[in-house]
Amino acid sequence: MTGQPYGEQPENDPTQQTGGTPPPNYGGQPGTPPPNYGQPGPPPPGYGAQPGGVAPLTPGEERGWSVGAHLGGVFLSFLVPLIVWLVFRERSRFLDHHGKEALNFQITLAIAYVVGFITAFILIGFLILLAAWVCAIIFSIMAAIAANRGEYYKYPLSIRLVK
């Protein structure tokens, strides 16, 4: 800018062509993006999001939610497996399988509890309630262990209502 009067810019100045000052280059070559200073850059195209903008689950998340579906059924009946299955069934085949299995088993147990409650006045109902409760605990723990290992599990005593 030697030889130019104060406030005037030469004709070949890049700031004149863009209408303002060029963005700072942070010491890099002209035309190169600024460094990211250790921050992760954008993911490669096609990585991460599935159609519809839903991110896939990691294997640890899949195992955790499937264990939650099986053990949650022990405390809140079919409500926990139903929610897990409805939320994650399209994001993971593993969770779709475990959610359906846990939901079917908890529905079967709910039927057994109703039958046991109705027949409790002839005393056989108490045995049905006890057997259903023991099966709920044992089979749910077995299913949770299998899910935590990343294995598929099918309950032995379950009516397949949800397919």
Automatic annotation (TrEMBL):
Membrane topology: Multi-pass membrane protein
Matches recorded under InterPro entries: MamF_MmsF
Transmembrane annotation, as ranges: 67-88, 109-142
Subcellular location: Membrane
Region (Disordered): 1-55
Keywords: Membrane, Transmembrane, Transmembrane helix
Biased composition (Pro residues): 21-46
Main localization of the protein described in the UniProt heading: membrane
Name of the protein in its database record: Tic20 family protein
Lineage: Bacteria, Bacillati, Actinomycetota, Actinomycetes, Micrococcales
